[in-house]
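Notebook B, p. 112. Complex prediction, attempt 2.
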Amino acid sequence: GNSVTQMEGPVTLSEEAFLTINCTYTATGYPSLFWYVQYPGEGLQLLLKATKADDKGSNKGFEATYRKETTSFHLEKGSVQVSDSAVYFCALSDRGQGAQKLVFGQGTRLTINP
Amino acid sequence: EPEVTQTPSHQVTQMGQEVILRCVPISNHLYFYWYRQILGQKVEFLVSFYNNEISEKSEIFDDQFSVERPDGSNFTLKIRSTKLEDSAMYFCASSELMNTEAFFGQGTRLTVV
């Protein structure tokens, strides 16, 4: 079945460092790909998405490119801030039998130190 | 900004008891979902619901689980007889259409003792 694998956490960086969180997927067909973020005490929020190969999703300085050839959707940010500290989830959509369902990676906890 | 709200934020229940987790989806959304995350594990799909019936359910969603939309606003997940392994964070989500963004609530942490 479809699956998503994220790099192991936790990840700790200093402010203004470059961030990469790796995500690879296994899927039949052509799923949409997502990054969700969960800030402390809050729910999952969609950070960015890409719906087809070579699409780049971007939001709040974060970017990820849908790479079909490497089945990857790595999350990057050029200069992280303390406020980026959160848990990040990579996910793909799986149409299944009807309504869209999401298949998540295990999440990567990111901590940014001042 | 519209949001999905879940109550309670934390529920503690004894093993074998019934528990109902409540969600108020965004008002114009038609598709509703429950996911759960056992501590330290992945967020897992449980069930999707559309037009007052289940669209799809996972293997986790066995006879102990049920969902209901009892009125025009609430969407509930019932666990009939809780087990220790049901302890998890449960997330409700809704989307306007089948292929549009799913908006998640903040989750209900269920602890079965």
